[in-house]
Amino acid sequence: MSTASAFVFDWVFEHARRSPDAPAVGTPSGWTSYRELAGAVRGLASRLEEGGVLPGAFVTLALPPGPAAVASATAIQALGACAVELNRQLDARTIEEVLAQTGARHAVVHLRDVEVWAQLARAHGFSRLFVVAPAAPSPRLQALLQGIDWTWVDEQTPGGGDSAWDAPVREAEAPALLVYTSGSTGAPRGVVQTHSNVHANTEAIGSYLGLTSADRALSILPLFYCFGRSILQTHLFAGGSFFFDHRFVYPKVVMEAVAEQRCSGFYGVPLTFELIRRHVDLRSIALDSLRYVAQAGGAMSPDTIRWAREVFAPAPLFVMYGQTEATARLSYLPPDRAADKAGSIGRGLDNVELRVVDATGRELAPRAVGELVARGPSITPGYFRAPAETAEILRDGWLWTGDLGWQDEEGFVFLVGRAKDMLKLAGHRVSAAELEHVLSEHPDVREAAVVGVPDAAGQEAAVAFVVAAGDASPDAGELRRFCRQRLPAFKVPREIRFVRELPRTASGKIAKAALREGLDDAILEGRVEAGSRAEGG
């Protein structure tokens, strides 16, 4: 049973009253019940308040996944403050930019990262640093934090404050989260997500997945990534349970955990399923508890989608689409339409309206390609302290997603690429995604990424980065011939480079900026040839 409140902390408190001993959050180390989680939230809120956190403040959060991370973010929101959840792998300079932008003077961090945060606390005049650690403070830790106002938080029992503390009435339109985008196309930006944004998206996702208190999800995705956080939120809303498992360097171990924990749902990005396909024999694992499997975070290859539908059956696969600027989810493809709508991201959620428009915002006829725009209660009010960038994506109440695509006569959306990922080849506008799709159809190619770079003549050239499938040794000339059989000559990549792996952002998306960086010297040396020739070996 879900709750009608717009606030995550109310969901936790309500389920703690209804089913106090029900499991809420689990890790390979064990489970935390709703009663324990609610106690941790109240206790942490009390300690944060004592440490000077006020309503409207921004509090940075950099913790490994687990009960302490969930309780900390929820406690921050219960105080009326905004949680700024960061990737623990961020460099100090990027963190400093976030601190300067938000004015955050409180942080909840893990013992393993305390040296970096001690320096940041001194440089930025922190009011209080909260250090989550598995054991009582050591003399070394105390010496390291000398001169800093700090509080120790027990990682196993993160409450420790006033367990009777209760949240006052809060404003649903206030910021709940500030989520920084991965920055694959530029500098990271803070996306504001209000309590009402989170509630609207959570309720809609839970509705189409049919989530109840009996559901248990396993996720390998980080909480600073909106997809990962949405999985947690939907299960807290329903009173279900959520199992964090970040041992995905061993995919088989994680899939065995799905079976051992009797999970009803498993979630991943395309790379998740590619790694499972390559390294795990799912026939050896009893996955009969699975009620569904869900994928988002980018386009998955048609071949992998077919594989996933086969190996996870009878559990259906939900292909989903969304953006941080939409809290998490905008659309999904109902599994019963997978066959006749293959390649589609589906239709909008019940509370989301989708359109395909031209550059002026005029809605286009079915099957005409334009930019996908969205409207609904989960759309962000904007980027934090970035009015110009906000005005670019929010126009007349519509979110301009930056994704190009078309709708069929039934409203199903098919994406063709990113507006900023279009190439101009021989005077023609070409989607990089189209070239990547063709290359990925070759049996010797596991995945491909295409970027556009200027050649020696000032024209744009398509350069493809290819990862071979298994033990295959594809030949560049053969791949170009394969492309020429399926594409006009001007679309065939000028150059094909083979790499062991494609660089990824923290959320698992291909980092094309990193691919382009390695091409600068090649362009200067003339190794990316001038002209529009698509032939060659």
How would you summarize the topology of this molecule?
Layout: H1 8-18, E1 23-27, E2 30-33, H2 34-50, E3 58-62, H3 67-78, E4 82-85, H4 92-102, E5 106-110, H5 114-124, E6 128-133, H6 139-144, E7 150-154, E8 175-180, E9 190-194, H7 195-209, E10 216-219, H8 226-238, E11 241-244, H9 251-260, E12 265-268, H10 270-279, E13 292-295, H11 302-311, E14 317-321, E15 331-333, E16 347-348, E17 353-357, E18 370-375, H12 387-393, E19 394-395, E20 398-407, E21 413-418, E22 422-425, E23 428-431, H13 432-440, E24 445-454, E25 460-468, H14 476-484, E26 495-498, H15 512-517, H16 520-524
Parallel strand pairs: 1-11, 3-4, 3-5, 5-6, 6-7, 10-11, 10-12, 12-13, 13-14, 25-26
Antiparallel strand pairs: 1-2, 8-9, 14-15, 15-16, 17-18, 18-20, 19-20, 20-21, 22-23, 24-25
Helix pairs in contact: 1-2, 1-8, 2-3, 7-8
